[in-house]
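Final report, Chapter 2: Outcomes

The project's central promise was a pipeline that accepts a single protein chain and returns its three-dimensional structure in a standardized token representation, suitable for archiving and comparison. That pipeline is now operational. To close this chapter, we reproduce one record exactly as it appears in the project archive, with the input sequence first and the structure output second.
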Amino acid sequence: MPGAGTPPPGYGRQEPPQRPGGYGGPTYQQHPSFFDDGPREHDPYFDDEPPPRRKRRFGGCLAVLVAMAVVLGGFYVVGDRAIDYVKDLVAPPADYPGPGTDPVSFEVHEGDSVSAVGRNLKEIGVVESVDAFIDAANTEGLTVQVGFYPLKKQMKAADVVEILANPDNIDTINVTITEGSRAKAIYKVLAEKTKKKPADFKKAAEDTEAIGLPDYAKGNVEGYLFPATYAFPPDATPTEMLAMMVDRWEQALGDNDIEARAKQLKCGGGKACTPEQIMTVASLVEAEGRGDDMAKIARVIYNRVENPGTAGQAGFLQIDATVNYALGKSGSTELGGVNVQSVDSPYNTYTNKGLPPGPIGAPGDKAIQAALNPAEGAWYYYVTVNLKTGETKFAKNYDQFLKFKAEYKNYCETESKSC
């Protein structure tokens, strides 16, 4: 049997050398049952042979190199982008060299900012970038007027600014239509400005759908060609011109809320007015009144058509301008010897009660507003007693009307030859 402190057989381990004095330190018996299959290979405690060294691998170094490459690559990308960003800040915006290619007509709209003009120019290919146009505009202190300008595609931004800065370059057909103008007179003005014929515009007016005429106009363009100053494109057709004028009338329609307001007024027999009747009243007011008198004249018209038989009148408007319209004559002054009873027309308000069948001219904003907001008063007559100043007096009964009429007659005899 092995003695105490002696390793079991097979371990091949030598006894440790004894320290001086005879005490060799404790010794231990290691039992094989500590391991599943006996001692493991190269155990430093139980084997004199040193364990094999692990081989150094290149993987760790490779990982470090890869990481460094990624970091350096990131610095390169970020740096490259930063350089591009700085270049973008320093480099001038994209701009065509000019002088341009295909001609285009460019419109500057009311209220357009310099940026809006630049965006519109880029959209149709006139300038290469908005920034190039803005820079050129700021350099020149550009102020641009509304209108159409002859430009070309792919122009240098500075050249575009030079053209827009000069109002002499505006390429538009400018036409002013005065309040009260009739369709026939409007056609003549448009024809003179466009070198077309009045018949071309009369024919265009017949295509009511193309020009946007409302259904309640019943195919009659009279009164719906709104009086204003227009800047038509140089290549506009008669149909397009009339459509623009009807569009402007529709703007007035919305601004004055005609359709809703008409329902609150009476145009005969206790019935609410239609938008067409409002336009008719407005055209009569335009022909007959001025300034503050317009709302009073509107009230006289409504009182007469709604209350026939009151204050000595029988529901006839007896407005000279309607007879002149029926005769194809201009003006709203006294008829002067015309036998009104012989004028056979639905527009003759001496022989037909109530409102005429439609407008007799193009009313402006003020006349429309007066028709929608008549003054309060029990007037049934009015007489313009001074044609020079436009002074008009309003009467609530027939006797008072006769007095004002005599005043007008005296004016014609002593102060005016235009009666």
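Archive annotation: The first helix runs from residue 59 to 90.
This record, like all others produced under the grant, will remain available to the consortium after the project formally closes.
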